[in-house]
Design brief:
The complex is a heterodimer of chains A (114) and B (114).
Chain A: E1 4-5, E2 10-14, E3 19-25, E4 30-38, E5 44-51, E6 56-59, E7 62-67, E8 72-77, E9 86-96, E10 99-104, E11 108-113
Parallel strand pairs in A: 2-11
Antiparallel strand pairs in A: 1-3, 3-8, 4-5, 4-9, 6-7, 7-8, 9-10, 9-11
Chain B: E1 4-7, E2 10-13, E3 19-25, E4 31-38, E5 42-49, E6 56-57, E7 64-66, E8 76-78, E9 87-94, E10 104-105, E11 109-113
Parallel strand pairs in B: 2-11
Antiparallel strand pairs in B: 1-3, 3-8, 4-5, 4-9, 5-6, 7-8, 9-10, 9-11
Classes of the chains: A mainly beta (114), B mainly beta (114).
Chain lengths: 114, 114
Amino acid sequence: KQEVTQIPAALSVPEGENLVLNCSFTDSAIYNLQWFRQDPGKGLTSLLLIQSSQREQTSGRLNASLDKSSGRSTLYIAASQPGDSATYLCAVISLSYSNYQLIWGAGTKLIIKP
Amino acid sequence: IAGITQAPTSQILAAGRRMTLRCTQDMRHNAMYWYRQDLGLGLRLIHYSNTAGTTGKGEVPDGYSVSRANTDDFPLTLASAVPSQTSVYFCASSEGHLRNSPLHFGNGTRLTVT
């Protein structure tokens, strides 16, 4: 059974620092991995989608990498800003009992201190 | 602004009452989903619809029903609410299959069953 883990559960860093959020999964047979951010009281916003054949995706100050063999993905945020404060979730698409399932991590709550 | 609209934003409901959560998208996405988000349990899929006229059960479908009469609308009905259905409910959509398409989320409905 696929399991997705995000460590740490919370992270607080000063503004301007570069940081890395981690996502690990137990079964390397995934179709893609997605990173989302969730602001308090809001829905989730898709940040990056990495296909299983890709190694990384970039969008602005965000860079997501994928290493299927080790079951890991990282989300790198460059030059962090207070507006980056949110909860970041990762999710993988796996095939389970002939159904495609989106398996979610519990998220990392990020606080950027001004 | 294109996106997903959920209504109501929040609701307090007496146990045993019937309630329909509304979800409308204007992106002409084929697939739609209902998730519930609970502290410590993360996001769990309730029901989904790959295309208008079809629906399927997710991870936690009991006590909920859905319909997909057209592309834009995907209402979620609680036939007889129970306190364990207290949660934040998110409607989501994707243009195509989750293998290739990112998820788009509404802002959620916070439901309290007393």
